[in-house]
Design a protein that fits this description.
Number of domains: 2
Number of strands: 0
Helix content: 25-40%
CATH architecture of the largest domain: Orthogonal Bundle
Order of helices and strands: HHHHHHH
Distance between the termini: 96 Å
Shape: elongated
Radius of gyration: 30 Å
Number of helices: 7
CATH topology of the largest domain: Cytochrome Bc1 Complex, Chain D, domain 2
Length: 205
């Protein structure tokens, strides 16, 4: 019997030591998992699978250890709504566009917060080709493939268009005008200003 214990004990010790080895995504065996894994909702993760981590769970609700969605939220999300009156800024510190659609005079007086750097113009060209040239054409002088069908797309060098200010162009991209639809919900403010820079380059060619 003693010999058997001497034989089994080293093996058992190796097994226990290997089970305690943690690294990477494997955290080893845990004596009390809820001491390591927070039960409160984590806003940066959302695991909807109620069976996730069942094998190590000792939760009182009998759900998997890793399940952390919020059942009290309509979409089971863990994020909370921002405080009332909170104003979201972009990564560059740009505030939301507050002017109303009819406030074109005030909008026309605005100046782009971006400079005329080659990077902004290159990105403006890319965005123009992505969102605009199907109506305005590659160079803004004649209608694109969609603009041909919906006749009436003006040239950027037309008398009424060639001297439009940066703010005016930005406002029109945001809210649309006549047959042109609004793009404020599809294109971020920074990207709209970059398109403006490229449009003005086309106006001046």
């Amino acid at each position: 019997m003693l010999n058997k214990i001497k034989t089994v004990l080293p093996i058992l010790t190796l097994v226990l030591l290997s089970a305690c080895t943690a690294g990477g995504d494997y955290q080893g065996l845990e004596y009390a998992p809820q001491m390591y894994h927070s039960v409160p909702y984590d806003a940066l993760t959302q695991i909807k699978d109620k069976e996730a981590g069942t094998w190590l769970s000792n939760r009182e609700d009998e759900l998997g250890e890793f399940y952390n969605s919020n059942p009290n939220n309509e979409y089971e999300q863990n994020m909370r709504l921002p405080v009332a009156g909170t104003v979201r800024r972009t990564a560059n510190g740009m505030l939301p566009y507050r002017l109303e659609k009819d406030d074109i005079v005030t909008a026309a007086a605005r100046v782009s917060p971006l400079d005329d750097s080659p990077e902004n113009l290159v990105e403006g060209k890319r965005l123009f080709e992505l969102y605009c040239d199907h109506c305005h054409g590659k160079n803004g002088l004649e209608a694109g493939s969609v603009g041909v069908v919906f006749a009436g797309v003006p040239s950027f060098k037309a008398v009424a268009q060639k001297d439009l200010s940066e703010g005016h162009i930005f406002h029109v991209i945001t809210y649309g005008i006549r047959r042109m639809g609004a793009h404020g919900s599809q294109i971020s403010p920074e990207k709209r200003w970059k398109i403006v820079k490229y449009v003005q380059q086309l106006q001046n060619q």
